[in-house]
Design a protein that fits this description.
Elements: E1 2-6, H1 24-36, E2 40-44, H2 63-69, H3 72-79, E3 92-97, H4 103-106, H5 111-122, E4 126-130, E5 153-154, H6 159-164, H7 175-181, E6 185-186, E7 197-200, E8 203-206, H8 212-224
Parallel strand pairs: 1-2, 1-3, 3-4, 4-8, 5-6
Antiparallel strand pairs: 7-8
Length: 226
């Protein structure tokens, strides 16, 4: 069984000078849970190649981040991610969209990633995402023409969290609002930045960076223990 992890290639904000990109812990915590179960993982990005890192997320006092950031194999995967054209969806039982603000610019309109997501889901695979990565699900249509997330319970980075991070002026849209517009039943934790996941059949979403580990644990439980 293999897992496909999606990361952003986008690294610039419209006005802020700092770099965005992948939020590191949303990858490392998920990766660590899967690695401990010897699950094989591939990393794909909309363009393939190098994955930029949101510089605010490079917290190497975090043991899990440090462990993988110093791992040559892991770093090589980040520098040489697959492009969607390299991916055969039949190889994967699970797809996972990581976040970081960068995802808001290059996930939702990528038709190749939408197709891969649909194919995995419709072959009884699982679809998962965390934080801003949930925007990768906004435009996924199933074969019957319905939206994947319509009438499903989902979570993702909330309007309150976006406001608290002072990035409201930078983001192209509010994820919480877009999920509701798609007809999803959006839920969130009472307290911002607390671990929170939502599960609806074979769809697992996490609200914020602190939810990545729980998304991975829940996905493993569903894949291996049922």
């Amino acid at each position: 069984m293999k897992v496909l992890i999606v990361c952003t290639n986008h690294e610039t904000f419209p006005n802020k000078t700092g770099k965005t990109g992948l939020w590191l812990s949303e990858l490392t915590y998920f990766y660590d849970v899967m690695s401990k179960r010897k699950v094989l993982m591939d990393i794909v990005s909309p363009l393939g190649g190098k994955i930029p890192l949101d510089e605010r997320s490079l917290d190497l006092k975090d043991e899990c981040n440090a462990k993988y950031w110093e791992d040559a194999t892991f770093r090589s995967k980040l520098d040489n991610s697959l492009s969607p054209n390299d991916v055969d969806s039949t190889d994967y039982r699970l797809i996972y969209f990581t976040g970081g603000h960068g995802a808001m610019w290059d996930f939702s309109e990528n038709t190749a990633l939408q197709k891969i997501t649909r194919e995995i889901y419709e072959r009884n695979g699982m679809v998962s995402a965390v934080c801003h990565g949930v925007c990768g699900l906004l435009n996924v249509k199933l074969s019957d023409g319905s939206w994947l997330i319509q009438d499903k319970y989902v979570t993702g980075f909330s309007n309150v969290e976006e406001t608290l991070m002072s990035f409201v002026s930078e983001v192209p849209y509010h994820l919480e609002d877009k999920l509701k517009e798609r007809g999803a039943h959006y839920t969130k934790s009472m307290i911002p930045f607390m671990e929170f996941i939502e599960m609806d059949e074979r769809l697992i979403t996490g609200q914020n960076p602190n939810s990545a580990k729980k998304v991975a644990s829940k996905a493993l439980e569903e894949l291996f223990e049922k």
